[in-house]
Design a protein that fits this description.
Elements (H helix, E strand, L loop, with lengths): L2 H12 L2 E2 L2 E2 L1 E2 L5 E7 L2 E7 L2 H13 L14 H13 L5 H15 L13 H9 L4 H20 L26 H10 L8 H6 L5 H5 L6 E2 L4 E4 L9 E4 L2 H9 L15 H15 L5 H14 L4 H8 L4 H8 L2 H16 L5
Antiparallel strand pairs: 1-2, 3-4, 4-5, 6-7, 7-8
Helix pairs in contact: 3-4, 3-6, 4-6, 12-13, 12-14, 13-14
Length: about 350
């Protein structure tokens, strides 16, 4: 038998088909095939090609069967991969879906062995979560696997909802720090000493999240109506219209507006931004991070009498309480400075 013939058979074997449905070999060594029942896309996985083929054949011959009828022995890893494709991929933004993929790959699969879903115990999940050091990643992993197990129970892949017996994980969200008035002056006096330094006052006077500004392009800027469309990164509500404040317009006018409106306003990567932040911090003499600049924006708005409802809208929050709790620090920095001014002005010896 010729080498070309052998190669052809290997290709045919690698990509078997049944009624137009192609079985593909995944990078993790499992076989996968996509099919549709009642306009809903579903997936079948198996490490054995023939079993994957037979499962597909069974489902398509008798469509009263659901995926559950042929997956009594599915493992946790097999289910969580299928769950993210079926329940998450079409509902989440690409960045949010990518985050779930990272959590599954780097935290869940790295910290436990794959076992049959029906044999899974709350202890196994608690043990997994205890191995994750970062409280933030631990909380994300907890939320992911808990939701995954709830859907497994709804689909009758497990007899009871073991997610309710997993020890609850909490993450105390780190609050940003508002720059003092003196620190703001230092920042504004030194930002132009680093390349692309204009991005820092833009963060300061826009309240943008890190990725929002890195994704901002010229097509989102309306010079005539003095508005900026901020692309949302968390939820649909985080996509918002921000006024083109005078300080922001000055920064935009600093650059030559290109013919191609799809070009980024600041053509730098996140890693470059990190280096520039470190450089500016050394020049200014205090630590600078983007979250603090966002917090400072909220604080400056409050200092100047902007209504909390408006501040929340500009910052892309649906809940004013979030804005007030995490992004308005008037009482911690601004008010202290006002107290100092009061004491200095009315310092009287008794």
């Amino acid at each position: 038998m010729s080498q070309d013939c052998c190669l052809s058979k290997e290709i045919d074997k690698r990509y078997m088909k049944y009624q137009g449905h192609k079985l593909c070999l995944r990078s993790d060594g499992r076989w996968q095939v996509k099919y549709t029942i009642n306009k809903k896309s579903l997936y079948i996985y198996d490490r054995n090609q023939k079993k994957c083929y037979d499962k597909l054949k069974l489902v398509l011959k008798n469509k009263t069967f659901t995926a559950i009828n042929i997956r009594k022995g599915i493992s946790l890893f097999e289910w969580i991969d299928e769950w993210k494709l079926t329940y998450k991929k079409s509902k989440l933004k690409a960045s949010s879906y990518r985050q779930i993929e990272i959590i599954i790959k780097n935290h869940i699969k790295q910290n436990m062995k794959d076992i049959k879903l029906i044999k899974l115990l709350p202890y196994d999940i608690d043990n997994l979560l205890n191995k994750i050091k970062s409280s933030r990643m631990k909380k994300y992993s907890y939320d992911t696997i808990r939701e995954c197990l709830k859907d497994a129970f709804k689909n009758k892949l497990i007899k009871e909802d073991i997610s309710i017996n997993i020890n609850q994980v909490k993450h105390n969200r780190e609050e940003g720090r508002a720059l003092t008035i003196e620190e703001r002056k230092i920042l504004m006096s030194n930002y132009d000493k680093v390349k692309y330094g204009e991005i820092f006052p833009f963060y300061l006077f826009s309240g943008c999240r890190k990725s929002e500004l890195l994704n901002l392009n010229y097509s989102m800027i309306d010079i005539v109506n003095k508005t900026i469309l901020i692309p949302g990164t968390k939820t649909e509500n985080s996509k918002r219209i921000l006024p083109l404040f005078n300080n922001l317009e000055k920064i935009i006018n600093y650059y030559e507006i290109p013919i191609n409106k799809n070009l980024q306003l600041f053509p730098i990567s996140e890693s470059t931004l990190k280096r520039k932040t470190f450089e500016l911090s050394n020049i200014c003499g205090f630590k600078i991070n983007i979250k603090d600049l966002r917090t400072t924006f909220g604080t400056m708005c409050a200092e100047n009498g902007i209504a909390e409802k408006v501040i929340a809208k500009w910052m892309g929050h649906t809940n004013e309480a979030t804005t007030k709790k995490y992004y308005i620090k008037v009482l911690s920095n601004f008010e202290k400075e006002q107290i100092t001014k009061f004491d200095t002005k009315f310092d009287t010896k008794f």
